[in-house]
Amino acid sequence: MLWFQGNSMQLAKYSFRLLLRNRSASKTVLPVLTLFTKDPCPLCDEAKEVLEAYKNRFILQEVDITLPENSVWYQRYKFDIPVFHLNGQFLMMHRVDISKLEKQLQKLEQQGL
User: Fold this and answer.
1) What's the rounded Cα separation, in Å, for the pair 10 and 17?
2) Burial label, 109 (beta-carbon count in 10 A; 0-12, 13-18, 19+)
3) SS3 labels along 49-78
4) Element containing residue 96 per DSSP (H, E)
5) Are 37 and 63 in contact (CB under 8 A)?
6) How many helices (H) and strands (E) does the chain have?
7) Dihedral sign computed on CA atoms, order 63, 64, 68, 74
8) Strands (E), the chain
9) Furthest-apart CA pair in the chain: how many Å?
10) In terms of CB atoms within 10 Å, which of 31, 53, 63, 72 comes out highest?
């Protein structure tokens, strides 16, 4: 799993670089699952435990919303963490929805993205 801090533009650039690096490293491209979190966050810790079983199907990047450079994310998600984006698109919040995650991962795997 990977941990990342940065603003939204840096996050987008970093996600894209991860995607490109991953694409060149193998024929299978792993999607990027972004976890918006803070410390402490017991629900985030619980979510990471649930996600452990899926760790070979995505790259996890964590964004600490309390850092100054992430103030946009803090304003958006301060009452909703954990929040998850898959390849830059909102996926779920509060708890891991396994069926939703599985459905989106299968969709991306079928598309080869």
Assistant:
1) 10
2) middle
3) HHHHHHHHHCEEEEEECCCHHHHHHHHHHC
4) none
5) yes
6) 4, 5
7) positive
8) 2-3, 32-37, 59-64, 83-86, 89-93
9) 39
10) 63
Place of tokens 């958006």: 76
Give residue 37's Cα distance to chain centre: 10
73-92 pLDDT tens trace: 999 999 999 999 999 999 99
How many other β-carbons are positioned within 10 Å of the β-carbon of residue 73?
24
Place of tokens 């966050």: 41
Min mean pLDDT across 2-6, 57-61, 73-77, 95-99 is at 2-6
Give the amino acid at 21: R
pTM for the whole structure = 0.75
SS3 label, residue 41: coil
Looking at this protein, which amino acid is placed at residue 105?
L
- The DSSP letter of residue 95 is S
